[in-house]
Amino acid sequence: MITCLGDALFPDVGVATVKLLRRLGVGVDFPESQTCCGQPHFNSGFHHDARALAKHTIHAFAKSPLVVTPSGSCAAMVKLEYPELFHHDPVWHGRAEDLARRTHELSDFLVNVLGKVDVGARYPARATYHMACHLRGLGITTEPLRLLENVAGLELVPLERHDECCGFGGSFAVRYPAISGAMVNDKAGFVEKTGAEVVVATDAGCLMNIGGCLRRRGGKVRIMHLAEVLAQQ
Amino acid sequence: MNYAQHEHHDFLGASNQALADPPLQAALTRLTDTLMAGNRKGYAALADSSALRDHAKRIKEHTLAHLDRYLEQLEASVQKLGGRVHWAATADDARRIIVTIAQQAGCQNAVKSKSMTSEEIHLNGALEKAGVRVTETDFGEFIIQLAGERPSHLVAPAVHHTRESVARVLSQHLGQPLPDDPKSLALAGRRVLREEFRRADLGISGVNFAVAETGSIVLITNEGNGRLTTTCPRVHVALMGIEKVIPRMRDLPVFLKLLARGATGQTLSVYTTMITGPKRPGEQDGPDEFHLVILDNGRSRVLATPFRESLQCIRCGACLNACPVYRRIGGHAYGGVYSGPIGSILTPLYDSVTLNPHLPHASSLCGACQAACPVKINIPHMLIGLRALQHQHGQGGHGGRHRGRWESWAYRLWSVVLRRPWLYRLALRGARLALRRWDQDGWLTRLPGPGASWTALRDFPAPAALSFRQRWKKDLE
Amino acid sequence: MQTRDTILHQVRLAVTEGNRLQPAPPLPERGRIGYQGAADAVERFCSELTAAGGHPFVTPDRDAAVQRIRDIMQRHQARKIALGCGGVIEDLDVANRLRGDGVDMTPMDALAAPRFREAMFAADIGISNVAYLIAETGSVVMATAPNEPRSLSLLPPVHIALAHVEQILPDLFDLFDLYSPVADLAKPAAPPPSCLTLITGPSKTGDIELKLVTGVHGPGELHVILIGSQ
Fold it and tell me: Which single residue of A200, B192, B287, B319 could bond B236 by disulfide (Cβ 3.0 to 4.6 Å)?
């Protein structure tokens, strides 16, 4: 599942995910009718629209035995919110639960389904890791770190307040630029303090926000998605 | 009078003011860093804290689902021991009841132990008007009272004060200059307040938990003012919201083990006091009269809705400490009696959804609050629920009806596009073309419309020349 | 009465309405979840009390216990002592053994109401028995009763609590079980005292810039002297 932000803004992440999965012997398909999981609508309180998009997404993945997405935020939407959205509709509730069971965030899939912490990646760089908020909801707290620790040549340095939100929050970043800006500037400051060349995250929202802030600050730190690091050899 | 006496509904102005206040920023960083480190350490030190938190949540769920029964049991248990029970439907009722108790018992000097519920009903003003002097005895609350302010944190009400400002406030009250070290100030506070306790004939407290089975009310403090308030004066009035009841004595330690750990990381707060009725024959101290005031004030209305989960809150403050927004804007910016993530739910629910348009939106929904909460309240879900409720009132996040309608049409249109992949592809291409002129090696430094508030502070990634789905078709399929 | 019935009626309606949205769960049984009790109760008690800022002292020797009290009194140059009755205080014969030390010793059972209050506000040190101790949290448990007043462990700036090691309960749950009815034995619970207080360290505040200050309202020092083997 490569949904809207990843499709339009970070296609390299999707490409890296496909390459990585194929390298590990996983057959990959991309059902082209998929667009957006509906999380922006759900989070803004437009549950009717979110339900329509959820049906669309459930339909798009009806034939996929397993769904892997390099986005904690889409995974959280599908796994935690879809069943809830159809609370009073037994038919769609069942379908939603079914998709929720089949769906995995990338690091969760690699570590807990494939049982791999070493995916054979090699990337010589000094890197630090920012934990995306949706991983907290999914209970994925150590998987990305374990994967990064096993990347050959990668020097992983700890990030202060690594699990604090970067200030993205979808419409929050646009509605409350001063608060969101204070959050992301603190985050960028902590990243710069580590002396890392690369900051690794697992969600398009964090990539946009932290990456955009780092670039505006004029520093040299790059932002990469976990999949991009793991695809390197 | 209303649930919340706002001095403003200007969330944006107040939060900007807080962001531009370096001493406040330093105080909030210190507070939230310290208490959150405690919260993590506290849960980690308790072997199966997550399971215990689930258990605590189930006790609360059960109690709320049978609240009428437990309230009646509580009433009977209190009366059996010679306590008096008073029911208050509104804040106004509660104020009138407490003033009447004071007048009938001839009380003139009241001491108060920290109680958010009494803040909620604005009790102090009503007592003063009836000629009863009121002294807040939690040290932080005392400072706030002298300064004429509202608490800015559930358990650290004076966090927005510095040692210098405390010294100023206290020196003025005592009419003598005090040094500004915390120890001298706190001990000066002890001396003043000890005299108040000696003089007091009325003690007013909140209730952390009320045990239906025994009629015991539980008070938790670190300073000991809760004990003094319920020991020295001859009359004790305890004020509780209807949601504070728990079924049995054996359910209490479940919450005791979690409350202090969640709030500060302490294994237990210094003083946990269970009061069961007034002084008994032969005892040398304690109040002759014990009154329990049970307050509804909108709670039963919330009990009937999907927001019932908010009534599980035990007012520990953990969600404030965990919240990246609270730590940057502080408690006063929220405008209500309760602040932080839980305040963003309570103020709209109890005050007004339409008059507090910002609160449900001023959250990145990061979930740190739920992760820190001793009873794992799904605060992000309820914030989203409030956003949906706003739409039912035809209102958007910035308050204007006009904007609300515009926004709901935009989301509707967007969802229509997203359900038609060909239209989605077309829209993507359109956006790419429209934004091309601002593209600087893959980033946009300026955006039109609402995007401008994004690019005021950071760059925005430019749509890629080829979307993932194009590259899938070209190279990967 | 009318308000009472109105509120309860509303709550009843709200409960019914809300229960339609989500089913009402039964009151859960805890099993062993969260139980922290272990074999090393004395050690655990002492380390937890120390962590909370209190001062434990364990001795099998009664003379050493009395000497410890005397040391604390001398360090504070205490003049007025408020003294509990019965229990360990009587076992150690504290009243008679400290009488020669030139202090004004007021046993609780000798005090009528007006003098009681004065003596409590004036005392430099309060010496009390305890009902129980909790190893898990390092707490002392005070149960109010005639001659076991609330003020004794509250008003004087220094509190000395005397106990036998046998009074230690491993876990908080053990304490509250004592006040809970046992359903299958149809055993009625011991009614809780008018005031049951758990004290965990000295009185504390962090209200000014989070700087910890002790003794802001309650005692600034808490000493627990445990009589027993070790």
Answer: B287
